[in-house]
Design brief:
Length: 611
């Protein structure tokens, strides 16, 4: 039922016009992930939690109560895919250790382990991670795909029943059982060319489940597949692709009947099979096949989405977000006026991720404890409010008051500063005696402070956004290291000099060309820019083999957005046909001489200087 979705470009949030209705329950996870699924009964959610190369966690949630009910530790490496069996008694889990585990989550107990799932006959074998799992409708078979090789397993014995080679060197294969259990459908991303070697697109194939032979094939898209989903009746399916198209297909004729333009990573049929739910970077769109248009959009309120699953009865849709949330939406609605669903629980507004980094020269005079406490309060409340205004509809008074109170309770637990210390600080309240009587506890004080300084009376968004970077730097001493500060200032002055020189001599090539790289298990990102403000930048995405997949041009600027000290932030703005994409922001990382050595994105990924 669940499909693993790979998001290729990580971008920051930007504003679009959506419906103001945002009906959901929220499940607070330990780590952002694309690996989650809903049980066939629609009662449970399973997802991977935060782990490492040797251990990982399976989290189970009750959909009705929106409460976490069980956490299972799996000593088996990083989870790559997870799915429920049709009778909801088992979970199938694949890991980066080349193994599949069948887990009885009620016990909990591993009932079957399948080793050596991926083939190692190819020169690219190191990259053949098991990226997809699915049970057959009868629950007796399990399909896995890795490196272009599809394998079908007996669930009870772990015996390999059949093996299908679609595209031997393709690790991004998308394969699923067809509803009739006769075939395996694959978007194999293998390039198809004509007799003149002209590129036509990538293949869509039906393989006979017993013989492994191709039953039907066609050209599906012009770029990689992201997902394939059938309707409940088994008559139609949807394919999503990186080519900016979603196609609706007739299963029997194996031909597409509708094309939807737009960048969507996943899709699903709803109860009325004329309606399709489309997952974009920031929205859920309700599309009518008959009317050929989007009837309603719901803003997900996220930096970017991380996958979609829909209950079998098509009543609810589950969306993963970059903030580590799973949001459950009621999609069995009148698309002209969606009804609001009860919201239970939200994120911790980033409070748990806060750590304090103390700055300054220990040989200098130390600030008072009250002053340091003041900086802590300002930083924690400010950081939480920067998340709050993105996640909460402040026009809904009931939810606003409830969520603000919860934010301040969490902040209070993080800070653990006595009420009298806050009041005597004098920074937040003018009259200490009146404040001591009026406010019964620290939570009430933080609520007033959050509203006064950050939420309702802040007109400049850049002010509150300046609190979004963690860890928070606290000035512990009266002056910073003067030598280091001087070197940093020299570096800034040199950057300013280069900027002026570039403006006065626009035809003269100036500046230092720098490259910053960041790698994930399946792709590599590269940013190349000239070290002058307002200069050009090139953003590139490569696959794990080093082949260039995407290039985006833009410009970049660098300004200081520090609250507790100098914090330079690079902002990349895309141009040309990609000008509609949101900006990217990076915090600068300097060495002891003030030279820019690396940049840190909004997901705390470090991009190191590379040549």
């Amino acid at each position: 039922m669940k499909k693993t979705i790979i998001i290729l470009i990580v971008l920051s949030n930007f504003n679009l016009l959506f419906s103001q209705n945002d009906p959901y329950k929220i499940f607070e996870k330990s780590d952002p992930t694309t690996n989650f699924c809903i049980s066939h009964s629609g009662k449970l959610i399973a997802s991977s939690g935060k782990g490492d190369e040797n251990n990982n966690i399976v989290e189970l949630w009750n959909i009705e109560t929106a409460q976490w009910i069980k956490k299972l530790t799996l000593n088996a490496g990083l989870i790559r895919s997870i799915t429920f069996s049709p009778d909801d008694t088992k979970l199938a889990i694949s890991t980066n250790k080349n193994s599949i585990y069948i887990l009885d989550y009620n016990t909990p107990k591993i009932v079957l382990k399948i080793n050596d799932v991926a083939d190692y006959n190819s020169k690219y074998s190191d990259y053949f991670i098991i990226m997809g799992l699915q049970f057959s409708n009868d629950g007796n078979k399990l399909i896995s795909n890795a490196g272009g090789v599809i394998k079908i397993w007996d669930v009870n014995s772990g015996v390999l029943l059949s093996k299908i080679v679609s595209n031997k060197d393709n690790s991004s294969l998308k394969c699923y059982f067809t509803p009739d259990n006769k075939y395996v459908i694959c978007g194999d991303n293998e390039s198809i060319k004509d007799n003149q070697d002209k590129y036509l697109g990538v293949g869509l194939k039906l393989f006979d489940i017993n013989s492994g032979n191709i039953f039907k094939s066609t050209i599906g898209h012009t770029n990689d597949y992201k997902s394939i989903t059938f309707n409940n009746s088994g008559t139609q399916f949807i394919s999503c692709s990186d080519d900016g198209c979603v196609k609706v297909w007739d299963y029997q004729n194996f031909g597409f009947i509708s094309v939807i333009k737009g960048q969507y990573s996943d899709a699903a049929f709803l109860k009325n099979e004329d309606l399709i739910l489309l997952l974009g970077f920031y929205s859920l769109d309700f599309y009518s096949i008959k009317e050929k248009k989007i009837l309603k959009s719901i803003n997900i309120n996220t930096k970017f989405s991380l996958g979609l699953d829909v209950t079998f009865d098509k009543k609810y849709a589950l969306v993963g977000t970059a903030e580590g949330l799973l949001k459950l939406y009621n999609v069995d609605i009148d698309v002209s006026s969606p009804k609001e669903y009860k919201s239970i629980g939200t994120s911790d507004f980033g409070i748990n991720e806060i750590t304090f980094s103390y700055t300054g020269n220990p040989s200098n005079k130390k600030f008072s404890d009250k002053y340091i406490e003041q900086q802590k309060i300002l930083g924690v409340i400010g950081h939480a409010c920067s998340k709050f205004i993105q996640d909460v509809d402040i026009t809904n008074q009931k939810s606003y008051e409830s969520e603000l109170n919860r934010l301040c309770v969490l902040a209070d637990k993080k800070l653990m500063i006595p009420k009298i210390n806050i009041i005597q600080n004098g920074y937040f309240f003018e009259n200490e005696k009146e404040a001591a009587i009026k406010y019964k506890n620290t939570v009430d004080i933080y609520k007033v402070f959050a509203e006064k300084f950050f939420i309702k009376n802040t007109k400049d968004p850049s002010f509150i956004n300046s609190f979004s970077t963690v860890p928070l730097n606290i000035s512990k001493y009266e002056t910073d290291d003067e030598a280091l500060a001087g070197k940093r200032e020299e570096a800034r002055m040199e950057s300013k000099r280069q900027e002026i020189e570039a403006k006065n001599n626009p035809d003269k090539p100036t500046g230092i060309i720098r490259k910053y790289c960041h790698s994930k298990y399946n792709e590599k990102y590269e940013i190349t820019m000239t070290e002058n403000n307002n200069s050009t930048v090139t953003y590139k995405v490569y696959d794990i083999l080093g082949s260039l997949k995407k290039t985006i041009q833009g410009t970049w600027t660098k300004i200081n957005e520090g609250v507790y000290g100098p914090v330079d932030v690079i902002t990349i703005k895309f141009t040309g046909i990609n000008s509609g994409l949101p900006n990217m922001k990076f915090a600068c990382q300097y060495d002891g001489k003030g030279s820019l050595q690396g940049i840190i994105d909004s997901q705390n990924n470090i991009w190191n200087y590379c040549r």
